[in-house]
Amino acid sequence: MAKICVIGSCSMDLVVTSSKRPHAGETVLGDSFTTVPGGKGANQAVAAARLGADVTMIGCIGDDYHGKAIMDNFKLNHVLTTFVEPVTDIESGTAHIILAEGDNSIIVVKGANDRVTPAYVERALDAIRNSDMVLIQQEIPEETVAYVSDLCHEFNVPMLLNPAPARPISEKIIENATYLTPNEHECTILFGGMSTTEALRKYPNKLFITVGSHGVRYYDGNQEVVVPTYKVNAIDTTGAGDTFNAAFAVALAEGNSLQDSVKFANRAASLSVTKFGAQGGMPTRAEVEESL
Ligand code: RIB
User: Which domains does the chain possess?
Assistant: First the structure.
């Protein structure tokens, strides 16, 4: 069983569905409001656990109603919560999501996720050292991502950085990361002066650019590889990227080839969009294998 350590955000997603997205200054009537667990870190932890990995989450929640629900959801999904702690002076992170016109718009209020500091992560050094893969994103402080990337380098533990939401990162973090999985937009923020083709060639077998329904591009040292996605009837694309990252990490940690790992991750991500909510459609291992 692959041991995965996820360091990242735990949030509650407050989701409104509407036939129309409001413009600035406009009010529209929505169709429904639902509260479901989310946050990129928590989503990736749950996705990896459903795919059969032994997952430890490192994150912070508020000592509040949402925090309790987030914790219960981890337990339900067999994610180890030894390093998920409630902080008392700030509320749990929330994501305010509008699902309209076939896509989502999201505002994240980080709340307790800002407390995932290097000092906080330091408590979990053994879990990090003993994992087969560390999975990290950017809804936590920048200095924590830098700190974890140094740790992974020092411990020789592979680190998959999902650079979402986008922000510029240092060359050192990029060097320390074993795998980077930006989408096209995040890629332009990471490698501003370079075209995607130039960036891919600069980071062979490290940079995996997700290009929506076109699939995933990477450079294998000889040629560019495009691994196509699967066509499905999408209900809600929220969490598809998280499912991709988790499944990619699980497949790699189990020793699969890069190309097979991307294929597995694409399949898992395509299944995830067939149900409502970031975690609603995240598949089990059996579901991915059956569909492959
Ligand atoms: O990646 C999807 C996630 O991003 C949502 O669950 C929401 O919490 C936002 O952080």
Answer: 3-21+31-291 (3.40.1190.20)
